[in-house]
Amino acid sequence: MTVELTRLDNGMIVATDRLEHVQSVALGAWVDVGARNETPDINGISHMLEHMAFKGTRRRSALQISEEIENVGGQMNAYTSRENTAYYCKVLHEDQELAIDVIADILQNSTLDAKELERERQVILQEIGQANDTPDDIVFDYFQETALPDQALGRSILGSPENVSSLSRDDLFDFMSRRYSPKRMVFSASGKVDHQQIVDLVSEKFDNLPAHEDHEMEALRYEGGNRIEQRDLEQVHVIFGLPTVSYTDDSFYDLQVFNTLLGGGMSSRLFQEIREKRGLVYSVYSFSSHYVDGGLFSIYAGTGPNDIGELMPVMCDELVRATVDLTEEEVNRARAQLKASVVMGMESNSGRCETLARQIQIFGGPQTMEEIIAKVEAVDLERVRAAGKSLLGGTPTVTALGPVKGMPGYDDLAARLRA
């Protein structure tokens, strides 16, 4: 990895990762602002801004933004998460100046045209409606809200229909001017790049960002609890979870190994016991969500109404059992899966570009593939067992959506985690 960093005079960090064997460049701006920076009355504004950024600037119409990138065979997109918003492109290396210019333009010169805003408002309302009609999607929002109630991290990234309907052009301008400061941005590029050339282009193009910084962020407060909603569906969609550590905690990789062997693949304990041996589900897996100050460890499954009564206790029991009778073989296999995932992820310059930006935002600097693999290899059986045990005994979060009549009681499930 040939990574170079430069902090510009305005505070923005420019990071490049040169790859000799490709002809393309993946690049973009990662803004350290997301849904957790929103107050309740403007929840959903980060996502709306991401949409509106492509709807025209003082120099380009919405059509011109897409045409200029696609005319050279490039791709452009964006996403909003709870802790950041990203605007990125992938182009041939000879078109990198165009890509940087377009990204700089939409982040500095968006007009947020009133007619476009009304059209995009309807698009986002459709997006919210689609999510609400997709049970194996909306159950994740229910889980987040139940685990982290009455706080920014617990609210939907899309926002509520009421908020989306009422957010004004002035609200968008105000949020962007207060939060999109250069000190909160990392411009990352990976592929056939020259670091100084990228630095010069970014320095030239990003010349009109707000100078001041307003970066309110509400701290994570885990509460947990129970949300069960009856719906006329074929399956019950359920998520069971517990609080866990942040990205930067010393036990982060211990937990990743535990997560992988518990529910990270077809050889995992959950898959083998619940699907292969008992036939209770089509889909079951564990996953973890991490933030700068905490995280959530969760298990998802979808099952029929006649099987939910058996499924939920087995999920709890497998979680507890995995902290007791782990084997070296399981730990070795999980480590191998994680190492392979790291290596394969570094084969894409798009993946490398995003990883580099996020590492700088989370850790303050890049981590090499060798450093990450060394951390995974250092995880042993006792550390994995300890990571699993750290999940037990706390207040769980249980959310279920569908024909929930046979759902076990919350207290009964919580008691199994204290066994």
UniProtKB/TrEMBL annotation:
Its cofactor is Zn(2+). InterPro entries: Metalloenz_LuxS/M16 (IPR011249), MPP/UQCRC_Complex (IPR050361), Pept_M16_N (IPR011765), Pept_M16_Zn_BS (IPR001431), Peptidase_M16_C (IPR007863). Residues 107-134 form a coiled coil. Residues 166-338 form the Peptidase M16 C-terminal domain. Residues 14-159 form the Peptidase M16 N-terminal domain. The keyword ATP-binding does not apply. Gene3D superfamilies: Metalloenzyme, LuxS/M16 peptidase-like. Keywords: Coiled coil, Hydrolase, Metalloprotease, Protease. Belongs to the peptidase M16 family. PANTHER family: METALLOPROTEASE, MITOCHONDRIAL-PROCESSING PEPTIDASE SUBUNIT ALPHA. This is Peptidase M16.
